[in-house]
Amino acid sequence: MAPTTRLSAEDRRDAIVAAANAEFAKTGFFGTSTEAIARRAGVSQPYLFQLFGTKKDLYVASLRHGFGRTRMAFEVAGRKARSEDPSTEHVLLAIGEAYCLLLRDRELLLCQLQAYAACSDPEIREVVGEEFTRIYRTVRELSGADDPALEDWFGKGMLMNTAAAIGPEMAVAGDFSFAATGRIAAAR
Predict the structure, then answer these.
(1) Contact (Cβ atoms closer than 8 angstroms) between residue 164 and residue 103
(2) What values do phi and psi take at 53, rounded to 5?
(3) Is 136 helix (H, G, I), strand (E, B) or coil?
(4) Nearest CA-CA partner of 70 in 117, 6, 155, 128
(5) Taking Cα atoms as reference points, which of 151, 125, 129, 156 lies closest to residue 140?
């Protein structure tokens, strides 16, 4: 018989967050059962609660993971772009292209959209607000953009979210023209 390796609590937590992301992407915080998450992760519900305490604690871990992944991609792209050309336009374009790559991960996108939908819960709204603010500050600091430029950039990002959530047919239909949407569709 092959020896089995036990996962550390941290590795098991990561596996459960990954399973939670998959479930939360489909049905959001309010529609996802901890039973479905535990089943997907291959653990018992009591063990899930032992590691996370509550469903909301697990959801917050999932939120922070997704926003953190986005922020890290922005930081990497922004730093690289600044080393090549520190102009605001160049850095914003590079971070935008990094976001196009992230949008290929439909699960990440849907988790983000579900996070905004779950903001009717005050605790979730607070976490989403904190994480979104961290991303906003990261982009501002890396790019040097002023508030109007950031509002425009983030507005286009929300348009990209909508188009990517609908799917590649949105770009193909030609009902609106947004260059990055075509890049998202082509990347699928």
Answers:
(1) yes
(2) 85, -70
(3) helix
(4) 128
(5) 151
Calculate the CA 135 to chain-centre distance: 11
pTM over 0.70: yes
With contact defined as beta carbons under 8 Å apart, do 157 and 102 qualify?
Answer: no
Tokens of 106: 């439909």
Query: Is residue 92 over pLDDT 90?
Result: yes
Number of H helices, E strands in the chain: 10, 0
* Residue spans per domain, the chain: 9-187
CATH architecture under which domain 9-187 falls: Orthogonal Bundle (1.10)
Residue 107: which pLDDT band, with cuts at 50, 70 and 90? Answer: very high
Q: Tell me which DSSP letter residue 141 carries.
A: H
How many other C-beta atoms are found inside a 10 Å radius of the C-beta of residue 173? 9
Secondary structure (3-state) at 53: coil
Q: Which amino acid is at 26?
A: K
